[in-house]
Structure formats: structure tokens, C-alpha cells
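Justification of resources, computational component.

The compute hours requested in this renewal are based largely on the per-chain cost of generating structure records like the one below. Each record pairs the submitted sequence with a full C-alpha cell output. That output is archived, and it is also reused by downstream analysis tasks.
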Amino acid sequence: MDLKENTNQVFQQVTKAITEAGREDGSVSVIAVTKYVDIATAANLIDQGVQHIGENRVDKFLEKYHALSDKDVTWHLIGSLQRRKVKDIIPYVDYFHALDSLKLAQEIQKRANRKVKCFLQVNISGEESKHGFSKEELLAVLPDLSSLDQIEYVGLMTMAPFEAETEELQKIFKETQELQQYIREQQLPNMPMTELSMGMSRDYKEAIQCGSTYVRIGTAFFK
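The structure output for this chain reads:
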């Protein structure tokens, strides 16, 4: 594994996708998902210029966060979060990508001592194996979510089915973008809704075409 070469290639390909989508340079941030690599490899990634680190599990997040506290990097929790673990993670996380219920939001509100940046996870594809609000569920609880002033709802996050073809990917990502824009237009308190967390190693190009501002890439760094 040539981490330096892989990192350069990822950034070049993301930049190319941004250009092909007719978007501005720097409009998409790359989150390096380090759930399958050790602390030393994550540190090496940061040294190669990676500015965003993403972890799926609370224990692994905390392990890397504390070991790499001297690094200038933004920390993302991208996996699902149990309510009982909110108190463990909230002091440290910069962005949480998988806020998928009102009860979880209420627990974050209860435990937070600062405003926490969160993405609302939506299950646009309707896959039973995926977490997240349906469009209808989310619209129904928006006023309740918006009343929680310790959370800044920066945008929406979604995941497409693993086997989805280009046309289905574009449909899912476009619907997510349209929902984000609709919510932003409501101008609700604590809901700037300016960001979209969509796209992984296999589908980030389609996600960037549909307005993604954060892509979550793991395997492409470590192939």
C-alpha cells in the first residue's frame, strides 16, 4: 500500500469530479474513513494532507482522537450512535453524521455543553438495512428538532444501496439535495442546512454531481 500515492490520487480524482460537475474548487471536503486502520496509519494520512478523519465506532473514535490530539484535524463520527454513548463522544466530536431520531437529538441536547454540528441521516432509498429518517418522518419532526438549541443541523446525510447503478444513485442523491434545499428554505432555528454528506469510495462522483459537500472515502486510500 502506497499511502502517499493513494492520497494524491484520491484528491486528484475528487478535484476532477468537482470540475466535471461545474462546481468551485474547494467546495467538497474529503473525510478519510479510518475504521480499518491503526493509529499510525491515520497519523500518516494526516501528514499527507488529510484534514478530516471519520470513524464509525465510538471506541475507535476516542482511541484515535486522544492518540492524535496534537494533530490539526477535524473529527467526524459517521456511524450510528447509541443514546447511552452520547455522553462519551459529544465533548470531542466536530461533526456527527448519523442523527437518525428525535430521541437521539434530545439526548445530545441534554449532554452537550456546546453547540454540536450534526447531519440528519435520511433513508431516501427505503432500504430496511439502513438507518435514518424517511422524508415524511423527518418533515413531521422538524419543529421538535429545531427547538433543540444545542444542535446545529448543518445538513443531511444519506447512503445509497451498495449495488445501486448510476441512475439510481443520481436519483437518491438528487432527492436528498432537494430535501435539504426545501428544509433550508424554511429558515428554521438552528437549521442552516448548507451541507450534504453523500458519497463513498464507490459513488462519490455521482454524489458530487448532485451537490455533496462532504464525501466519506475509506477503501480508495488503503487499496
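The chain has one domain: 3-222. The longest strand covers residues 151-157.
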